[in-house]
Write a structure and sequence with these properties.
This protein is an alpha/beta fold. It has one domain: Metal-dependent hydrolases (TIM Barrel, Alpha-Beta Barrel), CATH 3.20.20. It is built from 17 helices and 9 strands. The longest helix is centred in the last third of the chain and has 29 residues, at 333-361. The two termini are 19 Å apart. The relative contact order is 0.13.
Length: 362
């Protein structure tokens, strides 16, 4: 069986994917036409012709279009349901999805309320579970850049972060499991957000911030120390400081790495220069993720194939990364056991088929 077929059938989880950046092309176009008066049809069509993304700023402009397409509970339900269909097609058994909740409720005049979001997420998730046998949970992201004044010295205001925390706490019964910290890290370090994340942890939420993407190892260090990070999104630039790498390995803090995203956003010039394999060899728990598959243009299966081809990983290694994704997740213990058993059964089937093929050649 070819590598792409093997990867597609391998049971796995995805822990770093943004709901807004995972809107399937068909769904995005459907929503753009639904709200054609907003003028997004041409923008979506251009996006789907694979316009080159050369920087974080390019990516962010596309991402904002995607956010503006979701304007009602019905829209959230549709996007989530279609994400579930995509999960089934890639045999992604479970996803933890980032949602830019503050932007949805406050940046545009959508007449959207928090309960609308919860209702849409719940309905979409239930329908996806029934039709595709997949599970999703949510991470509410804090937009880090909106907390600092433009004056010198920069002044930090925690109002938005506190609001996002409140939304996340209200959303626990709807599948919200944690809070994150997203956006460009430059001039927006993690340390000032420490109090909000401490409160979140005390209330039972997970700390899953972005760090070590657009800024270096100090950002990862701050996320570990001040945000008490349970997992870190990206974290790849921890490789710039071996002391940070050592701490990640010793404390077994997983990194949710999105290799193609890091290349497209010009964090690294080529896949051969990406530190994924080096971090793996140094004992850091790594998981493979797509980040924003519909914007970046790379699915989770594409990511597994890319790292296998670039770094010479075997099927056994890919199975290990799939196990990492389940073990580092915050799905229920019952769900973890079920998913890990599916991976074990898949591996046994693969090894059995391989052995039969080798015997037939003798």
């Amino acid at each position: 069986m070819k590598l792409d077929s093997l990867v597609r059938t391998l049971p796995k989880a995805e822990l770093h994917v943004h709901l807004e950046g995972a809107i399937t092309p068909t769904t995005a176009l459907k929503l753009a036409h639904k709200y054609s008066h907003l003028g997004f049809v041409n923008a979506v069509e251009l996006m789907q012709k694979s316009i080159s993304i050369r920087s974080f700023e390019d990516f962010h402009s596309y991402y904002q279009v995607c956010m503006q397409l979701i304007r009602s509970a019905e829209d959230f339900a549709l996007v989530v349901y279609e994400c579930g269909r995509d999960m089934m097609n890639q045999n992604i058994r479970y996803r933890e999805m980032y949602i830019s909740i503050y932007q949805h409720l406050h940046l545009w005049e959508k007449n959207l309320h928090l309960q609308d979001v919860f209702d849409g997420l719940l309905l979409g998730c239930q329908k996806a579970r029934d039709d595709f046998d997949v599970e999703m949970q949510w991470i509410f992201g804090i937009p880090r850049n909106r907390h600092f004044s433009s004056h010198n010295p920069r002044i930090f205001d925690s109002t938005i972060a506190t609001k996002v925390l409140d939304y996340a706490l209200q959303g626990r019964e709807y599948g919200v499991i944690g809070i994150g910290l997203g956006g460009n890290e430059v001039d927006a370090p993690p340390e000032p957000f420490g109090n909000v994340f401490q409160q979140a942890k005390q209330m039972g939420l997970q700390s899953i911030p972005h760090a070590g993407e657009t800024d270096g190892a100090n950002s990862v260090r701050g996320a570990i120390k001040e945000l008490q990070a349970d997992r870190i999104c990206h974290g790849v630039r921890s490789i710039e400081d071996m002391n940070v790498v050592k701490e990640l390995a010793e404390r077994q803090i997983p990194l949710d790495i999105c290799p193609t995203s890091n290349i497209r956003l010009n964090i690294y010039p080529t896949m051969s220069q990406h530190p994924f394999q080096e971090l793996d060899k140094l004992g850091v728990i790594v998981t493979i993720n797509s980040d924003d598959p519909s914007i970046i243009g790379s699915s989770l299966c594409d990511e597994y194939i890319a790292v296998a081809k670039e770094f010479g990983y075997t099927i056994k290694d890919l199975v290990r990364f799939a196990r990492n994704s389940i073990q580092a997740s915050y799905t229920s213990s019952e769900s973890k056991t079920k998913c890990l058993l599916e991976i074990e059964q898949w591996e046994k089937s693969y090894l059995s088929n391989t052995s039969k093929m080798q015997s037939s050649k003798k």
